[in-house]
Design a protein that fits this description.
Elements (H helix, E strand, L loop, with lengths): L1 H14 L2 E2 L7 H7 L5 E3 L8 H11 L5 E3 L8 H10 L5 E3 L8 H7 L7 E3 L8 H7 L7 E3 L10 H4 L7 E3 L8 H8 L7 E3 L8 H9 L6 E3 L8 H6 L11
Parallel strand pairs: 1-2, 2-3, 3-4, 4-5, 5-6, 6-7, 7-8, 8-9
């Protein structure tokens, strides 16, 4: 019986791929036990810092493909750079709510060359410059920039993402009709676009976007400009449009 239990534990150690720890102080011991973890959810660990990320990157290395840091605010450029350089197979990074991150940290994220999905919602100190650094990773398919202080200036860089399918610009008050005119000429792969709470977008910008929408399937326009006849007319060529969330 005891040997059977040991065998089961041994199998778990070798094959466990996902982990969601409750306390960060046990991370070194846990990760050494589960060296093949590919998805690490740290949403229960709000005090992850640069040292924590260095430990994670040194233990997990290329096995790590996804990490959720959406409840942590105590890491910076150094920790993210260690993660990007040591975990070369990372495809998902969730940095939502990291309100202290600045453009330098965004440049560190850009070193994750295989990145496909990135969440930066409410990282309010990241500007156009930081986004310009990040989007050099041409593999990105999904990008969440909600509530960032970005403007039209970063859109040319975003438009270079040839594989981009999902873009979230919710609450980006610097985005306006001119921004959508720019989007019209790029991102032909874009399928979903969230413009919720973008108060400076009206029917002119939407008409321009839709006329060159490519494969755009589902724009989300909740809590935006008031619905007028002109706005309704600009949406008539779309099969589906989400006006609520």
């Amino acid at each position: 019986m005891l040997d059977g239990c040991k065998s089961l534990y041994s199998l778990e150690d070798k094959h466990r791929k996902t982990f969601k720890p409750l306390r960060q102080e046990h991370l070194p011991r846990i990760l050494n036990r589960y060296p093949h973890v590919s998805h690490l959810d740290l949403s229960f660990c709000p005090r992850i810092n640069d040292n924590s990320l260095t430990v994670i990157s040194n233990i997990c290395k290329d096995s790590l493909r996804s990490i959720d840091l959406s409840r942590s605010r105590f890491f910076s450029y150094n920790g993210l750079m260690s993660l990007a350089l040591n975990c070369k197979n990372l495809v998902d990074i969730d940095l939502s709510n990291a309100t202290e991150l600045r453009d330098a940290a965004a440049a560190a994220v850009a070193e994750a060359k295989n990145l496909e999905r990135l969440w930066l919602g409410r990282c309010k100190l990241i500007t156009d410059m930081g986004i310009g650094c990040i989007v050099v990773s041409i593999r990105i398919r999904s990008l969440d920039l909600s509530y960032l202080p970005i403007t039209n200036k970063c859109l040319p860089s975003i438009l270079k993402l040839q594989n981009l399918e999902d873009l979230v610009l919710e609450g980006c008050f610097g985005i306006d009709d001119d921004s959508l005119t720019a989007l019209k000429h790029g991102c032909k792969s874009l399928k979903t676009l969230d413009l919720s709470s973008c108060q400076n977008i009206g029917h002119v910008g939407l008409s321009s976007l839709i006329s060159g929408a490519g494969v755009l399937e589902l724009p989300t326009l909740a809590y935006g400009s008031p619905v007028t006849l002109a706005l309704a007319n600009s949406l008539k060529n779309l099969s589906i449009c989400n006006l609520s969330k």
